[in-house]
Amino acid sequence: MARIAVSLCGEGRGHATRICTLIEQLVPRHEILVYTSGDATALLRSRFPEGDGPVRIAEIPGIVFQYSGGRLDVMRSVAVGLDYQARILGPLVDRLMNELEEFGADLAVTDFEPALPRAAKRLSLPFVSVDHQHFLLAYDLSSLPVSLRCQAWLMSNAVWMYVSDAADTVISAFFRPPLKRGWEHAVQVGPLVRREITRAKPEDHGFILSYLRRHTPFDVIATLADCGMPVKVYGLGHREPVGNISFHAIDETRFVEDLARCRALVSAAGNQLIGEALQLGKPMLVLPERAHAEQMMNSHFLAGMRAGAFCPLENFSPAVVRGFLDGLDEFAPALDAVRGRMDGTPDVVRVLEHRLQCPVSEPARPEGSRPAAAAPARGG
């Protein structure tokens, strides 16, 4: 049994869902110490209660996206990030170094969290990067519009500052374009799909499922209420119904059941949820914020696969919803090609087991890694 330290970004639920899936595969053989913040802390503690098995959750300060008027405020978010790096990151790295030595860590794994990689490097502890964001550095993004390629270049500098010099770089994404020259060592895997999803039986119970970020403007809710079908909304907490819309507090079991039984998904454009919907063969209309470049990129790749459609959140309208629902059959061929084939968890576990056996060897290239199930995105 090895001792593995894991850190992850606490913003939203995608990182936490991915890491929970990975931990569930590791705990039969290893002891795990997890560092996280924000939303992810509660989710992880609910999945791995303190004292229940070889998993310990430690809360750390994390960077939080800033919103103004219900929209992502990029400049405020950057300012908060710079302040975090100037005042918090250094002392946090010192703390983690002490705790890693006390824990006796054999390996560090990070999902877009900057403190653990720095602590691991100072201790000469091998670490593996497992995240989505490294697609900005490693992937050929030439199929994206020029404006998004420029934003990808700017954002890639932040990714490099967060995590660099990993023994292995694993990129978890529902899309898989070619790697850039110089990034051939990166391991491409699908989203880490939780076992509740892989075991679920897809059905159609005639309703729309929606997962929305907590800052979603009310006019988006009003538009959904006018779509002509029942809509179940998660992410905004429990509220009184609005027309055909019912609001549900986050409940992992119930959400998975609804995802498996919905006719289609209307949601934010996070990589993890898109991957889970593809695993179940569910058509998607994703609503990225224009200021959220990563979600805009995810949306273009989804549309390029012809497995779903997207509309910027700011342009969402009844006509967009009706057009999507009227055209659901158009997505069936692409969804049939990827249904049941998205899970990248076994590939990530192979990389980590290889690194535990060979701490200073060449980057892992696990046998059995599946080729991409989806075609690259179309341009524009």
Quick structural summary:
The protein has 380 residues and is of the alpha/beta class.
Largest sheet: 7 strands, parallel
The CATH fourth-level homologous superfamily of the largest domain? Glycogen Phosphorylase B
Stretches where pLDDT falls below 50 for ≥5 residues? 366-380
Structural Rg: 20 Å
Number of separate helices: 14
How many strand units?
15
Order of helices and strands: EHEHEEEHEHEHHEEHEHEEHEHEHEHHH
Keywords:
alpha/beta; seven-stranded parallel beta sheet; six-stranded parallel beta sheet; about 40% helix; disordered C terminus
Characterise this structure.
The chain is of the alpha/beta class and 380 residues long. The protein has two domains: 3-192 and 344-357, Rossmann fold; 195-338, Rossmann fold (3-Layer(aba) Sandwich). The protein has helices at 14-26, 38-47, 74-103, 115-122, 135-138, 146-162, 195-199, 218-225, 252-261, 271-279, 293-305, 318-326, 332-338, 345-357; strands spanning 3-8, 31-36, 55-59, 67-68, 71-72, 107-111, 127-131, 168-172, 187-189, 208-211, 231-234, 245-248, 264-267, 284-286, 308-310. It has a seven-stranded parallel beta sheet with strand order 3-2-1-6-7-8-9, sandwiched between helices. A six-stranded parallel beta sheet has the order 12-11-10-13-14-15, sandwiched between helices. Strand 2, helix 2 and strand 3 (55-59) form a beta-alpha-beta unit. Helix 1 (14-26) runs parallel beside helix 2 (38-47) and helix 3 packs parallel to helix 4. It starts with a strand and ends in a 23-residue tail after the last helix.
